[in-house]
Amino acid sequence: MAVSTDHNPGTSPALSLLLMVNMACTLFRLTVPEALAGVTVHAARALGLTATHGAIAAGRPANFVLWSVRDAAELAYWFGQRPVRTVVRQGRIAVKAVGVSA
Fold first, then answer.
1. Mean pLDDT throughout 58-85?
2. Which one of 73, 77, 86, 91 is least enclosed by Cβ atoms within 10 Å?
3. Cβ neighbours of residue 76 under 8 Å, at least 6 residues apart?
């Protein structure tokens, strides 16, 4: 199942992807790994982008987020916060949290 925000001001004003992960786990009883697959590989499949997105692999754009959590389950739990450590876009660091060294 793809999981996303579908952010729009009319019917879905939610911006937080982590809130959607939380809702997928609590409302639809997905496990955290299933919800994370929902925001990555299944979301890419829903958009017809599996050839280039949804997974980290050789030859694909290196777009990913490093989270500042001890366990992946925290991503579904701490939906009101942004535990982003580093954002990598096209293989380059785009955002780094304050106080985080390379």
1. 89
2. 91
3. 18, 21, 22, 24, 25, 26, 32, 35
Residues 7-16 pLDDT 10s = 888 888 888 8
Portion of the chain with pLDDT greater than 90, in percent? 70
What letter represents residue 76's amino acid?
Answer: A
101 found inside a domain: no
Residue 36 lies in a domain: yes
Residue 82 lies inside a defined structural domain of this protein: yes
Question: Please, are residues 72 and 33 in contact by the beta-carbon 8 Å criterion?
Answer: yes
List helix spans (H) across 1-96.
Answer: 17-27, 32-39, 41-46, 73-77
CB 83 within 8 A of CB 74: yes
Number of folded domains that form the chain:
1
